[in-house]
Fold this sequence. Notes:
The chain is α/β, with parallel strands linked by helices and about 325 residues long. It is about 40% helix and about 15% strand. The protein contains ten helices and 13 strands. α4 (about 145-165) links the parallel β5 (about 110-115) and β6 (about 170-175). The protein is globular and about 55 Å long. Uridine-5'-diphosphate binds next to α5 and β8.
Amino acid sequence: xxxxxxxxxxxxxxxxxxxxxxxxxxxxxxxxxxxxxxxxxxxxxxxxxxxxxxxxxxxxxxxxxxxxxxxxxxxxxxxxxxxxxxxxxxxxxxxxxxxxxxxxxxxxxxxxxxxxxxxxxxxxxxxxxxxxxxxxxxxxxxxxxxxxxxxxxxxxxxxxxxxxxxxxxxxxxxxxxxxxxxxxxxxxxxxxxxxxxxxxxxxxxxxxxxxxxxxxxxxxxxxxxxxxxxxxxxxxxxxxxxxxxxxxxxxxxxxxxxxxxxxxxxxxxxxxxxxxxxxxxxxxxxxxxxxxxxxxxxxxxxxxxxxxxxxxxxxxxxx
Length: 319
Ligand code: NAD
Ligand code: UDP
């Protein structure tokens, strides 16, 4: 049986990746320190013999007994309000954590895939963003702790690839959504849906003309799976190119949820990227991948999930 280590396993993406690799017949070793994750996301897997869980902070030396075929390094705060609250841990998990996982991959002869992000493009001056674009990041701005940690992560990954011959993969993930996002993580989809469910107005930051392109989690997981199994070791964008302004998106959510609330405008956070859309030519060509789930279907499924959450979860709000 192939063995895979997944860091950040109790988080949104990590937990879906655990499900996928269990389904593919792998032995899954899940690792997390629960700083932004929740064991609820993986508790359904605890009864399985093919699944084990380690509570561990990956910025500390990582030891896993036995052989390892693959490592997916997904541990990192991912939401702006999370990484603004824990900036040093964010830098550490991208830098020291990645170093530890690459060292483990080298020792075990495992292939390692690291979760990079569209944020490495910063507030992009090239649109849509191709993998060749170097980005436009404010190193000392509040988001710099995340962006630069991820940029360092890519550099050290390529150094282990070139210098130590470790088999590496780099996925640049664009805004992904779906069930198991934390309702209070501050990202725009849980924020708007939580507000609709609590009967609050929807808070659009700035004038709402900034754009994002949202990818449903099942599509993202499929792209990551294909990239891991491919022999391509340079970064690949995985995201949904269907772009929308945040203002229009708020209107879509109002329609979907049937809320009678309105949109209100708040200050735009510093360095909030004005536009974001992946160029996915590479993923199409190399992985034969493109997203299949449209926004309407994906948002409906996500809203169904948020509706099942308890009143207590709903009240835990950052707004
Ligand atoms: P998440 O916050 O739901 O999950 C992150 C997980 O990592 C959490 O369970 C957290 O407890 C864990 N973690 C954080 N620091 C850790 C540490 N030092 N040791 C062990 N575990 C630690 O976020 P997510 O959306 O699932 O993101 C997962 C990964 O994907 C992150 O690396 C993120 O940068 C990347 N990513 C996500 C998106 C997205 O849209 N969801 C976009 C780009 C990149
Ligand atoms: N946003 C918003 N209202 C909110 C939360 C976010 O208008 O309550 C905006 C935010 O300013 C950004 C976009 O929605 O322009 C996406 O934000 P998110 O935090 O989801 O992701 P990121 O900025 O990292 O792409």
